[in-house]
Amino acid sequence: MKCIRCLEGEATVVAKAPDGSGAWEIYTCDRCNFGWRSTEPARLLDPATREPFFQMVGVDLDKLLTPCPIPPLRK
Ligand SMILES: [Zn+2]
User: For residue 47, how far is its CA from the centre of ligand 1 (angstroms)?
Assistant: First the structure.
């Protein structure tokens, strides 16, 4: 399965309903690290209906800024 945000990475199942019912699964993308649940509303699971603002199609992830840079250690 492809990632619903970047449309390039492969989604991996990282958790499943522990009772084995298949009621829900959680996925993460190996490219952009986005995570989502299988139980999200359909409009959020379908890349065609997701808000374009939240998509990362064609984004060079290596050029993104680190949101919370770690300051140097104090001496
Ligand atoms: Zn992705």
Answer: 11
> Residue 52 and residue 69: Cα distance in Å, rounded?
26
Dist. CA 14 → ligand 1 center (Å): 14
Q: How many whole angstroms from 6 Cα to the centroid of ligand 1?
A: 4
Task: List per-residue pLDDT tens for the chain, 75 residues long.
Answer: 999 999 999 999 999 999 999 999 999 999 999 999 999 999 999 999 999 999 999 989 888 877 777 889 998
**In-domain check, residue 66:** no
Distance 75 CA to ligand 1 centre (A): 39
Range of the domain at 44: 1-54
Number of compact structural domains in the chain: 1
Q: Does residue 32 sit within a domain?
A: yes
Whether 71 is covered by a domain: the verdict is: no
